[in-house]
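Notebook entry, structure prediction.
Reason for the run: the old model in the group folder had no record of what sequence produced it. Starting over properly, with the input documented here first.
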Amino acid sequence: MKRIFAAVLALLLLLAACTAQTAEENGSGSDLPSSSTEGEKTDLKFWTYPVGGWASATAISPIISAFHREHPGTRISVHLLSYETGDNEMEAAIAAGEAPDLVFEGPERLTANWGARGLMADLSELWESEAADAIYDSVAAASHSNNGACYIYPICMTTHCMAVNRDLFEAADAWQYIDEANHTWTTDGFIAAVRALHEYGVERVGEIYCGGQGGDQGTRALVTNLYSGSFTDAAHTRYTFNSPENVQALELLSSLEGISFAEDAVGTDNINRFCAGELAMCFCWNVGTEVTQTINNPDRDFDIFPMAFPTNDNEFNLQGGIWGFGAFDNGSETKIEAAKTFIRSVTEDMDRYAQAVLSSTFWPVRDVPNIYENDELMTEYFQLRGYLGDYYQVTPGWAEARTAWWKMLQEIGEGGDVAKAAETFENTANEAAGVKTATE
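New structure, fully documented this time:
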């Protein structure tokens, strides 16, 4: 039977409480209006990607409502994005001169994409507060761009990982290859487990989804961990993927029976197929996913076990997720200052900041005492934080590199030459980063 965790119950209680707040969802977005007052107002458009619990207006509503009560002269309307269509929506809005004033996402979009294009307001002054001083050094480093500006103020973080169907692994005698205490396994153990599951009769053990960029942190981590490859250099100036280690990993995945390449799928499809029992393992997972999927799949009848990606050297490098607020520079200093005021209201009061983190179902980016005390689920996943690797998603050319990544996987899935595909990917990514390739 699947586990029922305190975090799920806490989220349910939180969402139930939030329904009393003003929130109106209509499928494509949501408006949370302010209280009515006389006088001129500053209207802010706030767009958020589905970051954990922030995929729902009911989780955001109390935060917006509290700000409206304290700042009745500012009205914030919220629009909910999806990872499948959100980037297209955002680019269309930017092209039309209608970009939002506030956005909630990670450095790979706020810094490496829109910030690098000169579209974002510099939030450096927000980092002069006592609250900012408490942000973990690794998160602060990932939040600042190479030009000295800061286009994100971080709120929450997580460790992306993978997950396995424990019941199926045990039935196929594949559980022996997993270090249960540490949530880890070796590359040899991964290979043996896939073979055991396939021989047991599981046709689709795992799936390399490559229908787009959604959830691509999972496939990148899988490939680079298998034989200890790298994705970029340590300084995040160029892409270093085309290496014997990564080519070996891709060749393994393309030849291993039970592992398939799915051009029709992205990360959310991988999650849904795994939770439906169609796959024995999922490469796109984190604690927020487990909370959401437990709520959305009450009839699931197997136990999910979170895992680090397999590696050959006992050095596990999981990709972290960092999310926070950014402000587009739409030519209005009034709106930029109002956006900064909102960010301060969420982050400088400890109770309100804790509420924002709890709403996300992720971890804080600074110490918050007892925020998940006695929570079995968060305690289990917290262990995976010790395997966090380099946050390389701020490397120049990141948007183009992400597209080149899934196109490379598609080419390999169609039977293309692995070494050539890896070389093409690296050259394409480095060209976008402004780095000369070996052929130039």
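Summary: The longest strand covers residues 320-327.
The old model has been moved to the deprecated folder.
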